[in-house]
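Possible race condition, two jobs.
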Amino acid sequence: MRQTESGAVVVLTNGRVVTPFVEIESGTVVISGEKIVEVKPSRPGSLPPNARVIDLGGLTVVPGFIDVHIHGAHGADALDATAEAILTMARFLAQNGTTAFVPTTASAGWEQLANVAAAAAEVKKLGARGAEVLGLHLEGPFLNPERLGAQNPAAVQDVDLGRVATFLEHFPGLVRIITLAPELPGALGLIRYLRQQGVVAAAGHTNADFDTMNAAFQAGLTHAVHLFNGMAQLHHREPGPVGAILTTPGVSCEVICDGHHLHPAAVRLAAFLKAPSDLILATDAMRATGLPDGEYDLGGLSVRVAGGVARLPAGSLAGSTLTLAEAVRNAAAFTGFPLAEVVRWATANPARLLKISDRKGHIAPGKDADIVALDSDFNVVLTLVRGKVVWDARGRHQ
């Protein structure tokens, strides 16, 4: 195999490859330019000539993690509305195994949201070194005031389809997910519109009852953010949003596996009830992620981080300081499920939600070479984004 116009041939060899659908105990991944071209068992003398070879020495190789719900990291927040803030997030995420992400806004005014969108669009065009920006996730501003959690009450608004339509027209193809409360007046009409536009409508910060949730599914809602958190709770006579989400095939849901948002048994419950393709690990991370404990801002609210746990002054959780590599490690420990299945929750499943499975979420020929190598403690040793090494903890192959 020869060098192509798009870049050199890179070979990752002697790693445990989790695709995640197939596992190769000692495997080799051949990359040409930005794409994976071959995945096979490692054998002596089987490497292509003139390739750049990276010997993984038994590390575990998985697809790059995809975070569909992340507000900030390493001092930056999407609502900072600058390209530098999103680039800061992208660089930090790559060091921690996330190769693609959807910057997520908390509720805010439309002018500020437009500034965030412009910054995200700029970074998307740059293709900068770090995790790839896939678009934008608007968490709000159409949320139930009774279930706001760490959302700013001053920024919550009534459903306004016209505003959304104008926003989507101004930033075509950028918005990938909008989280809303399905019980709000006008929400079902907005969900139908989002389905027509190819935008994922997600439930969150909601008091919807079981019947309303099912009406939302019929209208086109296909996802739910941070299951159990920011929503009416499961009751045996009124299952509410939790019951509807857990019992409806094809509706995906996020779990935040930091050991604080959910008890391990709640994670196991979700894992047992949802189809293997419908569970997604997300971080809901805020700007304190990767930084020491202290005082931080989240969507205009003051947040105190102590022991790595972010809370509002009243004690409510306010996002997390989680990375997806940590979430995968925790989910494997909480559920006892095989690594390949847990990896799927952070790779193939978010790719499926975003309708990018044709290029991301798997280690297979033709896919983007977004690849992460982990040690036995789930520490990220190596990260490639579209075939480029963007992080090497060993300081080699840069």
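Job #2 (started ~2 s after job #1):
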Amino acid sequence: MRTNTSERVQKHRAALREAGLRPLQIWVPDTRRAGFAEECRRQSLLLQGDAHERDTADWLDAAADREGWQ
């Protein structure tokens, strides 16, 4: 027998599917994992002085829509 909560979840998901949406599962790095920050720093340091990275950063800066952000 389903619980009230699972029935509500199923109804909500059915409504989302009816609206043309589908569920999607995304796996991302666990930022809480030991060593995560150190690995981010290591990879960032590898990009220092890289011309392609500078071009990408400049493009992102120009394309950014900051209206309404503080």
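The CA atoms of residues 11 and 19 lie 12 Å apart.
Logs attached separately.
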